Amino acid sequence: METNALTAPKNSSLNTSSNILNSSQKPQRIFRFGSFEPDISSDSSSEYIPNSSFFQNSIGAAVTLAKSPFTAFFGLAAAVLYYIYSNTLSLLNIEARDSSKHKPKDKPTKSPSPFNLFEMEKLDLAVIATIIVGATTFLFRKFIFGNHILRTNSIPTINIQAAPKIAQHSYDPQRDLSFKMFQNNQNVVLIYGSQTGTAEDLAKRFARELHLDFNAQVLIVDPELYDLESLSKISPDHIAVFLVSTTGEGEPTDNMAKWYEALIGEDIFTADFSDLELPSFVDPTEESDFSGDYEFDTELPLANLNFSIFGLGNSTYEHFNLPTKQLTKRLRSLGAKLVGPVGLGDDDVNIDDDFEKWTGAAAPLIAKFVSSSSTGIDSSPNKYEPSFIVKELDILPIDASIGSVRPEILENASSINISHVDSKHPWYCLPLNSKVLTHTSSERRIIHLELDLDNINLPYTTGDHVALFPTNYETQVRLLLNVLNLDGSKPISLSFSPNASDNKPFPHSISSYSSMLRHYLDITLPVPKDSIKHVLLPYARSEPAKAFLKKLIDDKDYYKNIILTPVMSPGELIQNIHTIEKKEAVSDDLKFNFTFSALIDLLPRISPRYYSISSSNLESPNKISITAVVLNYKTPNNINRYGIATNYINAIHDTLSNPDTNSDIIFTSDKLSYCLKDTRKHSSNNFAIPIYIRKSTFRLPSDPSVPIVMVGPGTGIAPFRGFIRERFYQAKNSIPVGPTVLFFGNRNESKDFLYKDELLESFAALSSSNKNSKVITAFSRDQKEKIYVQDRMTEHSALIWDLINNQNGHFYICGDGKTMSKDVIATLKRIAQNEGKLDETRASSWFTTLKNTNRYAEDVWA
Ligand SMILES: Cc1cc2nc3c(=O)[nH]c(=O)nc-3n(C[C@H](O)[C@H](O)[C@H](O)COP(=O)(O)O)c2cc1C
């Protein structure tokens, strides 16, 4: 993660719905006469016809009723009663019917006797036979029809009325994932919740593995694009695999939020799941199969759903993998059957390792469900085929300057819908100005960048986050063009291949090789082992190349030394294969011949990076600012590596500071080259930086007179710069502003005092109206003994206690969540013990009350 790519604070992404489906409610039974029912048991070539007409509805109703247990029960009862009734009549010598309609008058009447079928009327026989056959069919339906029939009858949908926000649409087959699976003849659906792209990439990779190694047909689903209720219609022979990331403070990702809200409800932290049967959360390496401990209850809305689940989280956060745990419990309580272990991936260690362990245990079980088998590289039943077909076009080459902007901007600039700016529809804004906040002699370079919202008035609130899609630097772009022997300016078109496993389109179908590599693909992340196996290995034709790649796949330490430790980029890996083949004098016809379409499968998409907005919407509604430290580091074997997004921000700064340079290529202070020419053009058609705003709940108190204490060392100052600008602006406009205290820390005062001048100016004004307003600094390396913000807090214990406890102030932390925020919380609790004379337990509950009353908020990153 880039430095200062931040968390959204508690509850930021969840809109609330008062009418939720909670665990204590019995799910309502809803018959779906107007809904669409694929017959999964039928031939895939048969049509999937919506039964929405009156006729179809009536048939649907009749079929549903005929299949219901009540009908079967009453049918049997009616047959028995009819039989008793007929025989009672015969004993009393009374005709059961008005026989005059059926029999000739002159024929003597015979009374029917028990079991004498031949003496019964044909119609009676037909009715009884139908009822008995119907009832018997229902009772033995499992043996007769297998499981298929179950899914089309008594399974109520999830009660969408209980979640009004997701029920605001009419049925759309394009949003029905069971329909999509039926159409494509797929038996596994991979549903991912992803904020910064990791789960999305794992979904793409796992789909490939399930297809190539286990012969599964997999649909990848972004839940934002599908309706939750279609989950209940997945065939019981199929399986849904959830890959669920955690964001903010234990929250679901934006693309999962609506499903989550409908399933879990608004109160994600206090929802009571104690009455539910809990799955054990296990080490995925242990062999376990949860499928056996489960009772099939057809009354529950998700009774037909089989699911596996892997969570992505980070154990340094308080709510580790919370959405995954809650979702697992909830799905089970709705009747879904858990297959395989629950995986809880930990980004603090290595999420790829956790995922590999989990897939090792889960993939065979998932495969069992879709009745396939086979493992191993050489016995793959399916051959790898790239998802995209790339065609070179015979039109004029796309020159370097056009390639510097995302292609969709040039065509769609005027049609971008401002009311709908989000991760799938970013807004392209211009950089306004920038400055370096640290001294040239500082070990770190921290940039302040202002982005222009003037054209659109994109609404934001002080404390929100801005997400930014970076552009890759040229060194890696050109390396890839070079190793694939491609002309970067060549225009290309992209289309899905018939068996595409990746189903996410790019924003524009016509591009150039360069612009694909600059704007859409992450070209710096090391290639994971499974991608080496599934995508690179099939292109190895020479023995040395095969041996090298197989060793990377099979030998953990070798992979670590060659790929992970030096953080080897995909371009460097391909270059290495070429070098090995050259050394071994491999003949041309056997040389590794990797294609651009396969490269698209090999690489994750470029994901947005989140930054706390460091401006105030009161003071500057038409521009937002970012405060970012440029991330450069050396690997243990002394190779320079560069963070994509922060170096991009640095490049924008360098571009803005050299307005007269006319070159397409910009060299940054770190000698990285970028193609950013159009970022300098302030014309309405040449927007440059794709962004969107992510709402947060990291907010100033609504009453400006309420005291605030902020702790934000390093770039943790970002949102507080916005808070302080806001209070300064209010003070200048004669609005009474309460005590405002900032604890700021960094290495050296002379080099790293971020925003020094404006902070001193703001606090001069703020302290003139309230003597308690002040900035308190901790420069760790300006003296022999290191001093940190928490040491300064201890020195100012009385002030903090007075403002927070006695004057009901608000306390905020922003910055490193691994150690700093934990130390600051511990210090705050100690202050409560010392100043408030509370014992340890009471100090802890004092802090909990602070949190529960929304007077404590944190915006931290791990
Ligand atoms: C802004 C942010 C907030 C996070 N909050 C949590 C959290 O509260 N609990 C947790 O277990 N992990 C948390 N994580 C860790 C992520 O879940 C983990 O890094 C995951 O791999 C991200 O997946 P994604 O890229 O698919 O969104 C957070 C990560 C980020 C970037």
TrEMBL record:
SUPFAM superfamilies documented for this protein: Ferredoxin reductase-like, C-terminal NADP-linked domain (SSF52343), Flavoproteins (SSF52218), Riboflavin synthase domain-like (SSF63380)
Cofactor entry: FMN; FAD
Enzyme class, broadest EC rank: oxidoreductase
Ranges where the record places region Disordered: 1-21
Pfam families membership: FAD_binding_1, Flavodoxin_1, NAD_binding_1
Residue intervals of the Flavodoxin-like domain: 188-363
Transmembrane segment boundaries: 59-85, 125-144
Protein name, as recorded: NADPH--hemoprotein reductase
Residue ranges of domain FAD-binding FR-type in the record: 425-701
GO cellular component: cytosol
Alphabetical keyword list: FAD, Flavoprotein, FMN, Membrane, NADP, Oxidoreductase, Transmembrane, Transmembrane helix
Comp. bias regions, Polar residues: 1-10
Annotated Low complexity bias: 11-21
EC number: 1.6.2.4
GO molecular-function term, one example from the UniProt record: NADPH-hemoprotein reductase activity
